[in-house]
Amino acid sequence: MLSLASPSTQEQQFLAAFQQAIETQSFDRMILSQYKGELEQLEKMTLRVISLQGEFVLSCLYRYKTQDITKNYPIGTALAQVEQLLSCCKQANLITLDEELQLKKNKKKVMLTVSKTKSTSGQTNKVEQQGHDRAKHRYVDQDSYFLQPLGITDANAQIIPSMARKWKQINKFVEICAGAVQQIQQADQPLHVVDFGSGKGYLTFALYDYLAKHLQTPFVTGVELNPKMVEFCQGVAAQSNFNQLGFFQGDVRTYEPERLDVMIALHACDVATDFAIHTGIRLNAQMIMCAPCCHKELRPQLQAPKVLAPMLQFGIHAGQQAEMLTDTIRALLLKAYGYETKVFEFVALEHTSKNKMILATKRQDYQEPDQAVLAQIQALKEMYGIKKHSLELLLNDQWDQQDIGCKC
């Protein structure tokens, strides 16, 4: 349907449709482009409704040539805010659950085009399912500037095909983090997050971006051994205007934060995972998130119980058993020291072979280590002949200095 009339009439129809979409909760997003106002290098604006600290707000992502800036507005002023922004743009697209409206302006006329969206099929369950899919994909905004220098998207904010798996991993990581952060006790101060072994910073940037948009802007530090990676990530953070995101050259032994609310260690090799978990427990982190890899410590110690000897005579099975035992003891130690702990697969094996995650959130009623859980750990160690587990030694102040393990 195409209608032509005076500019004021067309814009009023567009704004009325926006207001109705907000009131009926059918609003998906609005994209304002061809900006002609006073803000230099502003390319477009994307508006969505999000929940921020229990209240719905209109979140506007201002996309500049070199950075993204997000501003949130009270839902009660949404119409006035959109009307002001619309006056500076030549094109606007409003997407709801039922239809898409496109408003285009030039010197001579204003055109308003209305078309049905694909979600309109007369079947409520399909609409609900598509709405659910949209919600899942909002954890990382594909339009976010930081994804371009990281090599995830191109100049048109399209996912680079070779990075599709990494893009899925990033979204899944942030989804898990977002759910866990909602469970931990929120203080008046912003969260302090440390990502040990941050690498190129894919998750570090994405988590900072998500928390800044949905909570208070956090203080996030990526800790990385490679100096070139640290320099690169510092540059991307500056370009993205992420003022409370920084990177430290070092590892879990050399970086000593004064405060730590969220500790992340993805693919920290061998006992580096134990050092990271110990740091989180020692600093009373409210959330600990680990994806262990390169399990080596327990494999040489493993002595097969008689009943399991036929199974563990095969090297691959012994390695898998040692890996499971290593992470079971880690999870039980977290539980003993006051954390609700989960161990699960976070992405399918087709995307990465290192797909196990340990996620722990602090219990507020914790007073002292749970002796019953510690007894379970001791029984497992005796069953398999295990004499040494690094996290247990660290928690008991019995660690003697030695090599932390591989750096792959």
Describe the model.
Helix content is 35%, strand content 26%. It is an alpha+beta fold and 408 residues long. An 8-stranded antiparallel β-sheet has the order 1-8-7-6-2-3-4-5. Strands 11-10-9-12-13-15-14 form a 7-stranded mixed β-sheet, with helices on both faces.
Secondary-structure blueprint:
Layout: E1 2-5, H1 7-23, E2 27-35, E3 42-52, E4 55-64, E5 68-74, H2 78-86, E6 89-96, E7 99-105, E8 110-116, H3 124-136, H4 164-183, E9 192-196, H5 202-214, E10 219-224, H6 227-239, E11 245-249, E12 262-269, H7 272-282, E13 287-293, H8 309-312, H9 315-336, E14 339-345, E15 356-362, H10 371-384, H11 390-395
Parallel strand pairs: 9-10, 9-12, 10-11, 12-13
Antiparallel strand pairs: 1-8, 2-3, 2-6, 3-4, 4-5, 6-7, 7-8, 13-15, 14-15
Helix pairs in contact: 1-2, 4-5, 9-10
Secondary-structure content class? alpha+beta
Number of helical segments with 4 or more residues: 11
Q: DSSP strand (E) fraction?
A: 25-35%
Given as residue ranges, the uncertain stretches (5+ residues, pLDDT < 50) are 1-7, 119-137, 348-353, 403-408
Largest sheet: 8 strands, antiparallel
Distinctive features:
alpha+beta; disordered C terminus; 35% helix; 15 strands; 408 residues; 7-stranded mixed β-sheet; disordered N terminus; elongated; 8-stranded antiparallel β-sheet
